[in-house]
Design a protein that fits this description.
One of its GO terms (cellular component) is cytosolic small ribosomal subunit. This is Small ribosomal subunit protein uS15. Belongs to the universal ribosomal protein uS15 family. Part of the 30S ribosomal subunit. Pfam families: Ribosomal_S13_N, Ribosomal_S15. By secondary structure, the protein is mainly alpha-helical. It folds into two domains: about 30-80; about 90-155, Orthogonal Bundle (Helix Hairpins). It has helices spanning about 30-40, 45-55, 65-70, 75-80, 90-110, 115-135, 145-155. Helix 1 (about 30-40) crosses helix 2 (about 45-55), helix 5 packs antiparallel against helix 6 (about 115-135) and helix 5 (about 90-110) crosses helix 7 (about 145-155). The radius of gyration is 19 Å and the shape is elongated. The two termini are about 30 Å apart. About 20% of the residues are buried.
Length: about 160
């Protein structure tokens, strides 16, 4: 992923196998997968963590390498159907948590100019991402403030 605010190169990552069917060794019923996804969401897990748990622990002991291939729906679509989706998209919430941590650090270390810039960059990313999600994933009236982000993360 290319970094927006640095001159460094992005980090490389592996690609998923190019296949359009679920492997035969993972023959879990789609309804069982959906119920497990909802169950994990109700326990408070983020969508990315749910995917890792399905891959590692599986459903009834059988690993699920790819939820979309197994069920025909993305994990977030399953959560949306069962009204178990989080209030904010995971990437936006993680950025807000990072900004709250940085702001707390800046309150104690006002001379830390490097992290002051990091906070500015993080809040800039939050506003940009909020514009992307506004009206669809988040409320039309949403505007980012540090106080709102801190309050939101305290509630969880």
């Amino acid at each position: 992923m290319a970094r927006m605010h640095t001159r460094r190169r992005g980090s490389s990552g592996s690609d998923k196998p190019a296949t359009d069917e679920n492997p035969e060794w993972s023959d879990v019923d789609a309804e069982d997968i959906e119920s497990r996804v909802v169950e994990l969401a109700e326990q408070g897990h983020d969508p990315s963590v749910i995917g890792l748990k399905l891959r590692d622990e599986g459903v009834k002991g059988v690993p699920v390498p790819d939820v979309k291939l197994a069920t025909g729906k993305k994990l977030t679509e399953i959560l949306d159907e069962h009204d178990a989706d989080p209030e904010f998209p995971e990437d936006l919430r993680n950025l807000m948590a990072q900004a709250v941590r940085l702001r707390e650090h800046m309150a104690e270390n006002g001379q830390d100019h490097q992290n002051k810039r990091a906070l500015q960059n993080t809040e800039s990313k939050i506003r940009r991402l909020a514009n992307y999600y506004r009206g669809d994933e988040i409320d039309e009236e949403f505007t980012y403030t540090h106080e709102y982000a801190a309050e939101l993360l305290d509630d969880e």
